[in-house]
Design a protein that fits this description.
This protein folds into two domains: 7-134, Response regulator (Rossmann fold, 3-Layer(aba) Sandwich); 160-368, Rossmann fold (3-Layer(aba) Sandwich). 37% of the residues lie in helices and 20% in strands. It contains 13 helices and 14 strands. It has helices at 16-27, 41-51, 67-77, 90-102, 115-121, 123-134, 183-193, 210-223, 277-288, 305-313, 331-337, 347-358, 364-368, and strands spanning 7-12, 32-38, 55-59, 82-87, 106-110, 174-179, 201-206, 227-230, 241-244, 250-256, 259-265, 292-296, 317-321, 343-345. The strands form three sheets. Strands 8-9-7-6-12-13-14 form a seven-stranded parallel beta sheet, with helices on both faces. β10 (250-256) and β11 form a beta hairpin.
Length: 372
């Protein structure tokens, strides 16, 4: 979308207060125009036809037709970018994950208490997610967008960069995966295709609200042969296990004897995110060196690109999702542009590539690190 053209947004929510609050937040940005509001799915259907919005914000709980049913019909009949508004509860988290599976671009957490101040606090996040959604073509994979990312802290705000040691005292390997927009479904596809046999531990940083990361980990555990959990501080990283960063903490990897363990850090946002992929990848570069495998999946922005480059410089194997299969080719595209990713792969092939690198003989990771 041209930068001089305003993004037209239709706000759909059964609460008049929420419609007004979301409209005011979005209208405060000079690049966004709220062209209308709707109190339920049937009113929204008519206004989509007459107003032709670029992006919808959609409430989950609505009268006459719930948000998921409306989203399912919308994606079947007239696919368009949708940002869901879901309550920060267990049920809300499950519904948000369902919405992402149905094709919603992203989710905004809606607090159950003091919603006015809660949403005002999240105003910049809401605006950023709507702008990002406008750059996504839900009909076909989008072209790489060079949308600017506002100035933010780098990984040094949490973990200082230091020279990578030439050798590593660890005999174990580790796989680190980063993702953002579209990542919940991309991670599901990767994890569901991996085999437990001879697979080292996996650590994942996915940009996701705090209330949603636990249910997301549980959902991944139910659809993967691996054991998947939300990471806890001090967890020893076991082979065949997956550790997903909590939604409001950085996940780092540190030494535990000849293996690794998880460390959580509630420090500053990095690249506007916590957890940050750059922080995770830097920690893996520093602790695992050439025993690491770095994977960067679909996502807006460039979080993870610099960290992946540090992993590559430490001797790790690195790969990224290709443009055609990405919802947004921001993060993997940025890694490819700076030479951090050794190869691009369609999402459907990434699990197989990971298993090839780890294989029946995990030491193959080292031997193949520069022959991707």
């Amino acid at each position: 979308m041209a930068m001089d053209k305003k993004i037209k947004v239709l706000v759909i929510d059964d609460s008049a207060m929420m419609r007004k609050l979301l409209s005011d937040i979005l209208a405060s940005d000079p690049h966004i125009e709220v062209v209308g509001t709707a109190s339920d799915a049937y009113v929204a259907r008519d206004k989509i036809k007459s107003l032709n919005p670029d992006v919808l914000t959609l409430d989950v709980e609505m009268p006459r037709m719930d948000g998921l049913s409306f989203l399912r019909n919308l994606m079947r009949l007239r696919p368009m970018p949708v940002v869901m508004c879901s309550t920060l509860t267990q049920a809300g988290a499950e519904t948000a994950l369902d919405a992402l599976a149905l094709g919603a671009v992203d989710v905004v957490g809606k607090p159950t208490a003091d919603a006015v101040n809660g949403l005002k606090h999240s105003a910049q996040e809401i605006i950023a997610k709507v702008k990002m959604a406008a750059a996504v073509n839900v009909r076909m994979p989008p072209a790489f967008t060079s949308q600017a990312v506002e100035a933010s802290r780098d990984a040094g705000a949490v973990l200082a960069k230091r020279p990578i040691p030439r050798g590593s005292s660890s005999s174990d390997h580790i796989i680190a995966i980063g993702a953002s927009t579209g990542g919940t479904e991309a991670i599901k596809e990767v994890l569901s295709k991996l085999s437990v046999d001879h697979l080292p531990g996996i650590v994942i940083a996915q940009h996701i609200p705090k209330a949603f990361s636990g249910p997301f980990a549980a959902r991944m555990n139910s659809c993967s042969p691996l054991t998947v959990c939300e990471a806890r501080d001090g967890d020893v990283i076991l082979a065949g296990h997956v550790y997903i960063a909590p939604g409001d903490e950085h996940l780092l990897v540190e030494r535990a004897g000849r293996g690794f363990r998880c460390r959580l850090d509630g420090g500053a946002l990095v690249n506007r995110h916590r957890p940050s992929v750059d922080v995770l990848f830097r920690s893996v570069a520093q602790t695992a060196g050439h025993h690491g495998v770095g994977v960067l999946l679909t996502g807006m922005g460039r979080d993870g690109a610099e960290g992946m480059k540090e992993m590559l410089e430490a001797g790790a194997a690195t790969l990224a999702q290709d443009q055609q299969s990405s919802v947004v080719w921001g993060m993997p595209g940025a890694a490819w542009k700076i030479g951090a990713a050794q190869a691009l792969h369609p999402l459907s092939e990434i699990a197989a590539r990971i298993m090839t690198l780890c294989g029946a003989h995990p030491a193959a990771v080292c031997a193949n690190a520069h022959t991707v």
